[in-house]
Write a structure and sequence with these properties.
CATH class: Alpha Beta
Strand content: 15-25%
CATH architecture: 4-Layer Sandwich
Shape: globular
Helix content: 10-25%
Structural class: alpha/beta
Number of helices: 9
Radius of gyration: 18 Å
Largest sheet: 7 strands, mixed
Number of strands: 13
CATH superfamily: Ribonuclease Z/Hydroxyacylglutathione hydrolase-like
Order of helices and strands: EEEHEHHEHEHEHEEHEHEHEE
Bound molecules: zinc ion
Length: 245
């Protein structure tokens, strides 16, 4: 299994980092995990055959994880993709085609079938995926309840099983505690080190994970402190790098 770090930035635009986006190749299938700005251009620069990508998985609906998807869908359309594409969404999947219409992105015009599914269907379609709902969006409760808004505050972390070991990807999280059951025992864990407080990141020291790669613009002090405690297991992610199990 191979993971390409296509976008390792945060929610703040950066001079040289794309927003969150990862490409995973497992056997003959490839998956996009989150799809922030810069994703399509990076894949084009890599000469990657985007018409063969199996599925796009959006773990939560913040702009830095979603906003690259429209250009990717459009570029697949312009490249005359014919292979069906699954797009997994964390919530409100029934409304997504309406959202695309704002951009004159009409799936009727695509030569490929766009299959929009709930992220909860992911393990049913690909049994090597597992996921857990995390606590990244809980801070919005007051504004959502106050405004009687339809947002469901769903955010997920995913794990992909492989023959030589498993990958896990936190996407954005509020705490390590909320995903401990999912990530314990994985070989390589791509972890949001920006949002959880440092004491939460220290929980990783007690878990059985071979390699922790800190992303989403993890503060330097946090990386330094974790490396001081266990230099073998912790490292900072590098955009453009690929990681193999
Ligand atoms: Zn984010």
């Amino acid at each position: 299994m191979k993971l390409y770090a296509l976008g390792t930035g945060s929610g703040m635009a950066s001079k040289d980092l794309n927003c969150s986006c990862y490409l995973v190749e497992r056997e003959d299938k490839s998956f996009i995990l989150d799809c922030g700005e810069g994703c399509t251009q990076t894949l084009v620069r890599m000469d990657y055959d985007i018409c063969e990508i199996e599925a796009i998985i959006i773990c939560h609906f913040h702009p830095d994880h979603l906003c690259g998807v429209f250009m990717l869908l459009q570029t697949m359309y312009l490249k005359k993709r014919t292979k069906p594409l699954k797009l997994y969404l964390p919530e409100r999947e029934d409304e997504f085609l309406g959202f695309m219409q704002y951009m004159y992105l009409f799936d009727e015009k695509f030569a490929y079938a766009l299959k929009i599914r709930s992220i909860l269907d992911l393990p049913k379609d690909y049994p090597y995926f597992s996921l857990v709902e995390n606590d990244h969006l809980i801070g919005y409760t007051a504004v959502i309840e106050g405004g009687n808004l339809p947002n469901q505050q769903r955010a997920y972390s995913v794990r992909i099983a492989g023959e030589k070991g498993d990958f896990a990807y936190s996407s954005d999280i509020g705490s390590i505690k909320s995903i401990e059951g999912l990530i314990d025992g994985v070989h390589t864990f791509i972890c949001d080190g920006l949002h959880p407080p440092y004491e939460e990141l220290e929980r990783l020291l007690g878990l059985s994970i071979k390699r922790v790669i800190l992303t989403h613009e993890t503060p330097d002090e946090a990386i330094k402190s974790l490396k001081a405690k266990d230099a073998e297991r912790f490292e900072a992610i590098r955009q453009g790098e690929s990681y193999t199990i």
